[in-house]
Amino acid sequence: MSTRMRSYRQAEVMSSTPEQVVSLFYRELLKSLRMGQQHLEAKEFEGKAEQLGTARALLLELLGALSMEQGGDLSARLASLYSYFLHEIDESSRALDASRLTPVIDMIAQLEEAWSQAALQLSGTEPPAVGGAGGSAR
Q: How far apart are CA 10 and CA 31, in angstroms?
């Protein structure tokens, strides 16, 4: 990553809410996993190692940021998921099986979407609810 891009990312993180930072980590994680999967499929082992190593580092950061005290059951469930993702990345890398990354990518994409929506809601810029605001289901 270039120095300019690194500076941009640092500024983006510093000006983001915690929820936005988690979403940013998920986006970067997805990028690394997709690129790692492509390298695996192309039998480009150096690129695979670099991208999957980045994905592991991002997951370890996410895992380390969990607060079991504040997050309770949600943090415990996320810790289990992150551990599963780490295991699947390791197994995919060892077995040179790119297909093992697909369910991991799919689940992380769902997490990223949920965190992005939560960040929007917490910032007060959430999109209007389906059915209009203030309406009731009858």
A: 17
> For 1-55, what is each residue's pLDDT tens digit?
556 545 545 555 555 677 778 889 999 999 999 999 999 999 999 999 999 999 9
- Predicted confidence (pLDDT) per residue in 109-138, tens digit: 999 999 889 888 887 765 544 444 444 343
Locate the domains of the chain by residue range. 72-123
Which residues have a Cβ under 8 Å from the Cβ of 35 and sit 6 or more positions away? 47, 51
Count of other CB atoms within 10 angstroms of residue 83: 12
Q: Which two tokens stand for residue 25?
A: 């980590």
Give the torsion through C-alpha atoms of 52, 55, 56, 60, to 10 deg.
180
